[in-house]
């Protein structure tokens, strides 16, 4: 796919020889955004599936009852952060890798290197769109939890936002590394689909991290989504997320990003 700069809608001021033009990176971002919005499957798994999962779980009566073993919380209170992380995992492992790998496989990135638009513009556009979709998914899940099931909004909003941003960057970095290591779009889809399940387990889909045995919980908290789940829970309760959990998220982001940069190939 080769893109060309698009002209702005307004006419150039008198005395100018040509109208203003959008930058190549902006043109690529607009084109990728249009293509992204035309993928109903991607939109469903990233933005639609997490709230749907939350709605199904919230319809179970036992999920809306306080549990003394969870410190008086309801299961639905714990599963709102899980739904948030589910959207991030789907965005990082399912949405981005097949697209970027497909572009490389079909030679689009190689052809872009001969145009004024650098291939890095396509990479940054994809990462930005995936990150924005993950954030939107998180907001939808938080809003649904509040409006439908009376789940309190995070009492430590700044800490929750910081943990969310770090979790999004870790998810995007994980997707970038998967894109770097796979040669074909089919392989990226297969590996991403396989990796989703252990990541969902670490996020607490089948068993909340708070309810895991101590040894298992410590291991899970060393993973990016396990650390994020605990950080979300701490911020939701009004405490600043532990710096150890924020540090795990930041460290994973740095390591995954460095590995993706090291092994990513344009062709």
TrEMBL record:
Assigned GO CC terms: ATP-binding cassette (ABC) transporter complex
Provide the residue span(s) of the region labelled Disordered: 1-25
PROSITE patterns linked: ABC_TM2 (PS51012)
Higher taxonomy:
Bacteria, Bacillati, Actinomycetota, Actinomycetes, Kitasatosporales
Domain ABC transmembrane type-2 residues, every copy: 41-267
Annotated localization: Membrane
Low complexity bias located where?
Answer: 1-17
Q: What Pfam families does this protein's entry cite?
A: ABC2_membrane_3 (PF12698)
Q: Name one GO biological process term.
A: response to antibiotic
InterPro entries, alphabetized: ABC-2_transporter (IPR052902), ABC2_TM (IPR013525), ABC2_TM_bact-type (IPR047817), ABC_2_transport (IPR000412)
Note the topology in the membrane: Multi-pass membrane protein
Q: Where are the transmembrane segments?
A: 43-63, 75-96, 121-145, 157-181, 187-207, 243-264
First-listed, main subcellular location of the protein, grouped into a coarse class: membrane
The highest taxon in the source lineage is Bacteria
- Keywords for the protein's UniProt record, in alphabetical order: Antibiotic resistance, Membrane, Transmembrane, Transmembrane helix
Q: One GO molecular-function annotation for this sequence?
A: ABC-type transporter activity
Species per Swiss-Prot/TrEMBL record: Streptomyces uncialis
Protein name, entry field:
Membrane protein
């Amino acid at each position: 796919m080769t893109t060309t700069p698009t002209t702005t809608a307004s006419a150039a001021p008198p005395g100018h020889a040509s109208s203003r033009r959008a930058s190549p990176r902006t043109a690529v971002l607009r084109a990728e955004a249009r293509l992204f919005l035309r993928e109903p499957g991607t939109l469903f798994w990233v933005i639609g599936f997490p709230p749907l999962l939350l709605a199904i779980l919230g319809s179970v009566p036992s999920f809306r009852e306080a549990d003394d073993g969870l410190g008086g919380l309801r299961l639905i209170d714990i599963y709102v952060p899980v739904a948030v992380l589910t959207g991030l995992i789907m965005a990082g492992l399912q949405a981005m890798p097949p697209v970027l790998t497909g572009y490389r496989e079909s030679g689009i990135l190689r052809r872009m290197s001969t145009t004024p638009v650098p291939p890095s513009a396509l990479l940054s556009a994809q990462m930005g769109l995936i990150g924005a979709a993950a954030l939107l998914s998180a907001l939808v899940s938080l809003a649904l939890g509040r409006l439908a099931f009376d789940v309190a909004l995070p009492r430590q909003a700044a800490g929750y936002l910081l943990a969310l941003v770090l979790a999004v960057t870790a998810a995007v970095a994980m997707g970038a590394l998967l894109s770097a290591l796979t040669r074909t779009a089919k392989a990226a889809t297969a590996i991403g689909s396989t990796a989703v399940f252990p990541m969902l387990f670490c996020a607490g889909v089948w068993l909340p991290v708070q309810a895991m045995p101590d040894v298992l919980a410590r291991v899970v908290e060393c993973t990016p989504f396990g650390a994020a789940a605990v950080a979300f829970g701490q911020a939701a309760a009004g405490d600043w997320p532990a710096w150890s959990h924020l540090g795990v998220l930041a460290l994973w982001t740095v390591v995954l990003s460095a590995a993706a940069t090291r092994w990513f190939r344009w062709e």
